[in-house]
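Contributing: when you submit paired examples, paste them exactly as shown. First protein:
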Amino acid sequence: MNTIITVFLFLIPIFLLLTRRKRSSEKLPPGSLGLPVIGQSLSLLRAMRANTAEEWLRERIRKYGPISKMSLFGKPAVFIYGQAANKFVFQSDSSTIVNQQVKSIRAILGDRCILELIGEDHKRVRDALVSFLKPESLKEYVGKMDEEVRMHLEMHWHGKQQVKVLPLMKTLTFNIICTLLFGLERGPRREILVDDFQCMIEGMWSIPLNLPFTRYSRSLKASARAQKILQGLINEKRLALQQKKTASPRQDLISCMLSIYNDKNEQVISDKEIIHNVMLVMVAGYDTSSVLLTFLVRLLANDPAIYAAVLQEQELIAKSKANGEFLTWEDLAKMKYTWKVAMETLRLFPPIFGGFRKAVKDIEYDGYLIPKDWNIFWVTGMTQMDDTIFPEPSKFDPTRFENPASIPPYCFIPFGGGPRICPGYEFARIETLVSIHYLVTRFTWKLLCSDNFFCRDPMPVPTKGLPAQISPRKLL
């Protein structure tokens, strides 16, 4: 009898464990995790490069519904879709989900950037970034932005008959960031750094196998080289700040972050945090802004009526300026239609395809279980092309943004939302408006590639880098 009781007591926890596992398994979203490590990564990346990634995901939605499980970049994930999914991602606090990226992004950008930090650490570092990037601070940098754009056009556009738009826009945004945000002078270090950042970006969405022939491996090496250069730059700026006569805390983002001290006279942001967040800002500003500007050029070339309206707005501002006078914050406030065109461009061609969060505990969502430590994968652009939200979603129509309140919340979120909204939003707006002002008032252009195809690698890349024939406009 004692033996039977002992066996029975031994079997109870096993039975409960199996029952719990079965119950949890039944609550998992539909779908498959695929092959170990690889999962659906290669399939998604192929679809992105063929510009069929949205259809790839719609097929999943048709098959499994708005929530399904998969495996991406070496980790199980739950794909969620729709307005409710976007709201869940941006409204949940760190007790439910955290903003942890996949291993490839985390390893390349670093684990102390604001994409990875949570709680007080996130607030501390974000506040430091915002102190420099907030509108009140950026007002004084419009003139420097203006100067950079004019210099770029003089060097790379004037006197040319043909250009490749995307590479030149990347050159422009990189130089703007180096000058305004990091105070890095033109020269060999800039040239090395731009190559390293391009290599880093290529491996950010990749299977994290550190083998010599992989993009991931090349990106890790490029990241290490970039971090070494940035540490040297930090050392130089710290020395300049200590000498005081040669530097100001407000002259660039790195100097600003180095100048933040607490009550104990301790540096609030560590060197490692500065490096990792500088790399994040560099990647975001370099690639996403250049993509927006490139597709703006393409869309204006393909739509004469929209182009004429933008030109009219910008010529009125140009006529109000004395010869050689820089644009001002007040001038940017008058570019309302141009910014609507930019927002519609972001809706149709979002630079960032999707994002990741990590569940910090088992989560019940839409009747299914998202297990602890699984990634949550969502694609913001899916709602932007939903015809129940944006009628005729493929049509380029800037009037959609005449009344932003008419757009349902969490359906158009090109800069994120909630406490993690992109701190560089205003910087991107200034950069875009200043660049477009000088492009449309000083040049006309005609595209030399008739197809409208682009691939994602992982950012949108138009065919052949968008070659265009350009002609100078007569200055007013």
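Second protein:
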Amino acid sequence: MKSPLLLAGLLPLLAGCQALVGRDLPTPEHPGERWQGEVIRQDSRFWFSPCGDGRRFEVAGLDSLLQEAAERRFPLFLDMRARLGTSDATGADGRLTFTRLYRLENEGPGCADPNFRQMILRAGGHEPGWQIEISSQGLLLQRLGEAPRALPYLEEQLPEGRLSFSSEADGEQLELWIAPQRCEDNASGALTHLTATFQQGGQSYRGCAYLGGARSD
């Protein structure tokens, strides 16, 4: 369980529809490091440039993932786990073998997200728009047309990699349920590795979620 604490700050609301696109394959025994940066397709290869890093890596294992993203425009922001090895491609600083997706998108702050390193999880959905960001300092709830609320929370780890975050303040209770299933925002095309269900006031809302830099499970 996490100790109740508070968070301050503002984040933009997510928008768009969500669609489940199947449970992720099990993570390999040695999934490698977590990487964030931009990916492009050039000369029948995928190339990855890490955030704040002048290197350029060939990426393997992305073909099936980006086949789903055929209509998206490059460059794309990619948050992934990958194993680093050598490459015979001209101009490559190495070869990254993709093992796990956290996020793939062409909208949003990308490398410029100031809260990423401190963030445990971000979830959001629409109709009406809502977003929850969780850090070790607390839970920040934003709902369309309402003032942001910083709340204490409790975390529970559930079977099969699922998580539950709950908060009760001012006589009102909210719960956020997270499951390890790939999720697509049909408006933006963003893919994430988690689905989210947000419950408040007797209502239930679906959305997508991903782990932040403070929780790279």
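If you have annotations for the second protein, write them as plain sentences, like these:
The chain has a mean pLDDT of 85.
The first strand starts at residue 18 and ends at 20.
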